[in-house]
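Worked example

This section walks through a single chain of length 270. The input is the sequence exactly as stored; nothing has been trimmed or padded.
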Amino acid sequence: MEMQEKTRGANYSVRDEIREFWSERAERFDEFPGHEISGERERSAWHALIQRHLGPGAGRSALDLASGTGVVSHLLDDLGYRVTGLDWSEPMLERARAKAAARGRTIVFRVGDAERSSEADSSYDVAVTRHLVWTLIDPAAAFREWLRVLRPGGTLLVVDGDFVGTGRTERILARLDAAARRLGWRGHEPVGLSEAMQRRHRAILARVHFSTGARADAVARLLREAGFRDVVVDRRLGAVHRAQAAQMPFFKGLARRSQHRYAIRAVKPA
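Given that input, the structure is written out below as tokens.
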């Protein structure tokens, strides 16, 4: 950490901090519940969600924005898309490429900033993001960029949520989870962030656009303003959340299903 501090100059920005944070998380990223696919039940749920909004791949081109270790890229590849994964973290991409090689996949992974992709105009039939929007510095600019790289009539699928605000149900479940821990009833105990990493996460979150939470209506409004049409919010993610909950402590699993999580489909005008 001391060496990292020495290499940070006056131009070191929150964008650099975000990239560094996720690069450091790359090694154990897939171990966190809700990141890698936990089994066939969850895989089938994701396939159904993707097909509901994007249809079958049939050789169409797909861009996985902020692809991380390639989890969504593999789901799209399963469905017959020609997939390119874009991420600005080399450690994430190293793991994505290794995973694809081990599974015999032909997914292309390359370095790129999801907010400034440098991809060619009108080059993809679909674009997908999972848990990216809430981290964006300038979502309006990012959405215009995603509109640019889609072909006319192309479709964007955003899967995200409000990971900041908590409703009454979630707060009650958090208290029950804490009580269960005190009593020694833990059940599945997932990997978690260290206190130092949690502090860094909070410091980053305070400076992104959706610092108070990425609500679906606000994201949908920005997508329309960027030029997308036929913007549809879908809260029917229950099948995914039930499968993920099976890998979590009991009360955390219940909380997952009560959170403000959603998918948004948006179309570039033909």
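What to look for: DSSP finds eleven helices and seven strands in the chain.
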